[in-house]
Structure formats: C-alpha cells, structure tokens
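Try this one yourself first.
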C-alpha cells in the first residue's frame, strides 16, 4: 500500500539520461523489521539499500525499485527516504538522552525534536556529471583545460564501498570516496586513484566545496541548549543508526504482536508479518478493548 507520494530533493539518473524524482513509498511491514533484526551487525549502508528496495514502490518510471537502483541513489535522497519511513513507522517526534558536552556541566539531559523541522535543501543543479574548473593556485596549471574536473555526487554504493574502512581510518575512507566520485581531471578520463591522491589540499577543498554547493542535503546537526547550564551546542543526528536501532530494540515486540494476533485471530504468520506496524497495533488495541469489555461482563 502506498502511504506517500513525494519528490526526491536530488533525483536518480538512469542509464538513458532520464532523471527520476517522484516516488511512491509504502509502509515497512513486519518482514522489513525482521530483516533488520536478523541483520544486526551488518553495516548500515547495505541495509538502507535493502530496506529502500522493499519500501519504495515506484521511482519516476521505475517499478519495481531494485536494490541496485536504491544503492545508486544520492546520499541525501537515501536519507530523505529513510526520514519519511521513520515518520510513517514511529512518528515525527525523536527523544534522546545525552550528556552536556561542556566540561563545566556534563549533566545528563533529555532532547526532543520533530523530524518535520529538519531543513531539506534541494539540489541547486541537477546533472549526472558536474564539471568545474580548479583555481590555478590549487592545480598548479595555467591552462584551464588542464584544471577542469568532472565528478558525480556520492551515492549509496560509495558508502557501502568505504564503510568497512570508515571506523578505522576516516580520512582514508573519505579519500577513497572522493576517488570514486571524480570522473576526470583535465584530459585524463577516468581519473585514477593515484591522480586523486596527488591533488593538493587546496584542490580537494575546492572540489569538496563544489560538491557541497550542487548537492541536495538534509541538515542533520540539531542546535539545542542545555537546560542545566543554558549553553548552546550542536548534536549530530545519525538517522540510519537511530532508525535501525529503534527497530532492533523493538524486535521482541514484533514477535509478541505476531503471537498475540495469531493466538486470537488464528491468522497465519505470513499474513501478520505482511502488515505494517501501525495496522498490527490497531488490531491489538481493538482486541484489548474487546477483551476488557468481555471481562467486565458487558
């Protein structure tokens, strides 16, 4: 069942050069929740691809949406789809406990905010490949033709490729991601890893700034203030880990719901697991009300 039709802030370019932005999103069912429970320990980028391929019913003229398509969506587009899935599964409100980062305080505080308030910025330019010219100072070349850089924006496949390295060496992981995204440097196409590694720090800075300028983005740093000391600070919000963590924490709830509905309605497990969480909960509430009425002798 389609629960939402919306537009991606970026978009997916197919092999024919067609941009697909409109999507239809369905609810997560018990099967997707179980997938995440069983995949505990799997890196989250691969799980995002698997979940999106199951829940995105249509993307532009593409249906069904395969894992390969989900894998090649822009990072911000994947975040946007996860954001919508989280809203339809748990609602808008996010609550978290954390410690004030100011050393003079350090007290435990509770944070609450709405996902609807997260700023979403659409891509300023849409193209499968972007080209711009490095400064002469950054490249060491006077000829503009030798300073031209072509790149595509990073996607889920890039995240998956570097995820194993990210925890060990973040700088190296980011370098590899950049090497995957850069398509050409001057007349050299495709650019190889050594050429990307040889870029000056200023050249990398200019390329990353241009990527940031044209890319869609979701602001995942929440500005808040400590209620104890009153000082402000930014809280980085990891949407993937929050969402998957919430679902894994509720793994026992999923199986209790299946047992409860099967016991009372005599439904088969596949029928119950095909229901989204909100529908399972509605039947459970109806059952609870009926059982209470019978117990009261009405």
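Now uncover the answer:
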């Amino acid at each position: 069942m389609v629960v939402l039709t919306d537009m991606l802030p970026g978009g997916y370019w197919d092999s024919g050069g067609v941009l697909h932005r409109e999507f239809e999103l369905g609810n997560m069912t018990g099967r997707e929740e179980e997938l995440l429970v069983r995949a505990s320990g799997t890196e989250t980028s691969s799980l995002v691809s698997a979940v999106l391929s199951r829940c995105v019913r249509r993307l532009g003229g593409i249906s069904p949406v395969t894992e390969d398509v989900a894998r090649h969506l822009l990072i911000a587009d994947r975040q946007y789809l996860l954001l919508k899935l989280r809203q339809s599964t748990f609602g808008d409100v996010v609550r978290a406990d954390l410690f004030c980062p100011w050393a003079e305080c350090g007290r435990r505080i509770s944070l609450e905010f709405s996902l609807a308030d997260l700023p979403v910025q659409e891509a300023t330019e849409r193209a499968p490949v972007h080209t711009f010219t490095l400064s002469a100072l950054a490249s060491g070349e006077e000829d503009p033709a030798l300073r031209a850089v072509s790149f595509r924006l990073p996607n889920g496949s890039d995240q998956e490729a570097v995820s194993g390295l990210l925890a060990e060496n973040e700088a190296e992981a980011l370098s590899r991601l950049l090497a995957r995204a850069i398509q050409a440097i001057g007349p050299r196409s495709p650019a190889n890893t050594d050429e990307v590694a040889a870029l000056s720090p200023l050249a990398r800075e200019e390329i990353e700034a241009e990527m940031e300028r044209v890319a869609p983005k979701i602001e995942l740093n929440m500005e808040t203030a400590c209620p104890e000391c009153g000082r402000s600070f930014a809280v980085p919000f990891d949407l993937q880990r929050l969402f998957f963590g919430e679902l894994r924490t509720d793994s026992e709830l999923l199986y209790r719901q299946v047992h409860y509905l099967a016991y009372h309605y005599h439904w088969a497990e596949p029928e119950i697991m095909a229901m989204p969480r909100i529908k399972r909960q509605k039947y459970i509430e109806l059952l609870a009300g009926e059982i209470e009425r019978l117990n009261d002798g009405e």
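Discussion: Residues 166 and 173 are 5 Å apart (CA to CA). The mean pLDDT is 87.
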